[in-house]
Amino acid sequence: MSYLIVIAVTIVIYAIVTVSLNIVVGYVGQPNLAQSAFLGLGAYFAAIFSTRYGVSFWWTIPLSFAVAGVAGLGLGAVSLRLREDFLAITTIGVNFVVVALFQYMPFFGGATGMYAIPLPTIAGHQFDNTDFLIVGLVMLAVVVAASFHLERAWFGQSLAAIRDDEQAACSVGIPVASYKVAAFALSAAFAGMAGSLYAPFLSVVTPTSFGFTESIVILSMLIFGGLGRIRGALVGALMLGALPEAFRFISDYRLLTFGVILVLMLRFQPQGLLGEDSALSKLASRALAAFRPQAPPLAGEGALMEKGTSSNGPSRD
Amino acid sequence: MFVSSLVNGVVIGSLYTLIALGPSLVYGLLRVLDVANAAALTLGAYIGLEVYGRTHSLWLAMLVAVLVAAVFGLALQRLLYLPILDRGPLITLIASIGVFIAMEEVFRLAFGPYRLEFPATVPLPTVHVGGAVVTGVQLLILVFGLVVLVGTWYVLRHTRLGLAWRATSQDRLTAQAMGVNTGMVIATIFLIGYGLAAVSGVLYAVNYNTVFPTMGDIPAYKMLAIIVLGGLGNPLGTIAAAMLLGLIETFTVAYAGFALPRDAVAFIVLIVVLLVRPQGLLPAEAGNS
Q1: Which residue of A has its CA nearest to B105?
Q2: Regarding beta strands A125-126 and B132-134, do their DSSP bridges make them parallel or antiparallel, or are they unpaired?
Q3: Does B26 touch chain A (CB under 8 A)?
Q4: Which CB contacts under 8 angstroms, 24+ apart, belong to A311-317?
Q5: In this predicted model, what pLDDT tens digit does every residue of B131-145 receive, in sequence order?
Q6: Are B167 and B175 in contact (CB under 8 A)?
Q7: CA A180, CA A155: separation in Å to the nearest integer?
Q8: End-to-end CA gap in chain A
Q9: Which residues of B touch A31 (CB under 8 A)?
Q10: Is the distance from CB of B155 to CB of B24 less than 8 angstroms?
Q11: For residues A142 and A146, what is the distance between their CA atoms, to the nearest angstrom?
Q12: DSSP assignment, residue A253?
């Protein structure tokens, strides 16, 4: 049971990062192959401030959020000067540079990273895995709610306009530059927030856990589930996160599986499993239209997902 | 110290040239950043090692490695890149990263995660130049680098293939309409690019006496840096950038004792250059408009 909870927390952390990545890649259509670097920044700052300065877990959450957000601002500013594949290469570079900083700067604890990160406490008792799961689900709910709101808000609509045609968006008065930067910052900040959970949950952070391949794993989850869709990000993180655990034999072939899935999806089903116009999504929205849930949905993640999916039914637009 | 750094820099630059030239030519044609090309480097090294272990002939090892890698490249462009070409440069880039990661895992599963030795001897003498020692392998790398430099210049400027490459890279559809067999040009470029990657894989493995599944990592990302620095779609610029990067890296490590590893240096240089000169150090003469 407790093993299942550990897996669940891992998947929830992946889900938060995948949904956060969706803001930049899905909504604004900008490449970002460095999302795990922002997760890493959040995790590192949470680790450093809780072990060295005794900052409580609850304060490391906004701290990690802010630090990663500022880093995201930087990448957003860079994205204004570069297009498509140039930006993609730059984000790859950012990933390597961040890992190198973790490895070589004494502030980040060098190659061994940070360890013995204290468990958070709540009302006097130390966190167990269930507490981590609850906090993780709350964080996920916040990120999903924010994304969900974003999709419908003026800001999110503008991001979609920027994705579809930047010049047209500019001509109707959308502040393209500041919106792009804001999207990068928000996306990075959410990933950083996940980092503040990651650090005490694993109790160690090492430089190589936030490398380029990890960014690709997160991107695979998003592409597998369906770019630009919250449900896609959630399902992608859930399925690809659970896959190595569900099938023991896969765990040794984890990266191979991710690589192959990435290639096959892009080759044959670039919308992902649940993206717009994907075969499964059409089927699902038809099914959902037939069985509209009568009872109010339960709680947290489920409720938000339900709303997210049903609003994509025939009633949309 | 100066001369040996210079020699080392040029040797590394030549290796980078062999690695980056294929993807640079491919980028010019298709606007695909072909990261998977670096998988051909590792593939070449492993195939070379297998053949060398059986025959003890470095030339035969190289030949077989080139053939296998060329077939791999041909299959990749036919089965993956061409069908998804219309979906834009990002999709193809991410797909090629997927291929690259999957291939690395295949190498790990097939040959094991450890470093294997490649104890080949090159039938060339060790040369002393002004206090620097140039080993036989390094000499071979320099020769290959020079051949590729001259060969690229000659092929692009003075042959029908070069003309077809330049026409296709300017506008694929128009070139096709004018009777250029663009499919053939693309296939040939992939053959050459993956063959060169295999050669550089064998040379790399012999030079450092090691073969391991992730040996393509650093070349893969550095190759991207080099292609961009040289001006996308400009093969001669790529060669210049490869040499420059080899020299800069070697000299910063030798003299400045930079706090960051040399691989991070490459990326910092890349990011700075991209921000200041997004079109690359040298403008693309035959690049896409």
Answers
A1: A256
A2: unpaired
A3: no
A4: A312/A281, A312/A285, A313/A285, A313/A288, A313/A289, A314/A285, A314/A289
A5: 777 888 888 888 888
A6: yes
A7: 10
A8: 44
A9: 90, 93-94
A10: no
A11: 6
A12: T
